[in-house]
Design goal:
Length: 82
């Protein structure tokens, strides 16, 4: 059975940040606020990443989010299934 990958993008620049699994996406959905059921973007800041890094998120997901944030205060990310 093939597992579709989910791509994460910087919502402002459309730069591909990397791919995550369905389980990683579920961590984002469960841990972050969605404005609607169709919402596929999130605002990420250091506190958000620290919250997700409490053992729920994989090291891979946390690494992608930290790289997306860089030295900024916050970043909007979005996801899209391939």
């Amino acid at each position: 059975m093939e597992h579709p990958m989910i791509d994460l993008y910087n919502a402002s620049t459309n730069k591909l940040l990397g791919s995550i699994t369905e389980a990683d996406l579920q961590v984002l959905v469960d841990g972050l606020e969605e404005e609607s059921l169709q919402d596929q973007d999130y605002y990420i800041d250091r506190a958000t990443i620290d919250l997700l890094a409490d053992g729920r998120a994989t090291g891979h997901l946390v690494g992608l989010l930290r790289a997306a944030l860089g030295s900024g205060d916050g970043v909007d990310i979005r996801w899209q299934r391939r």
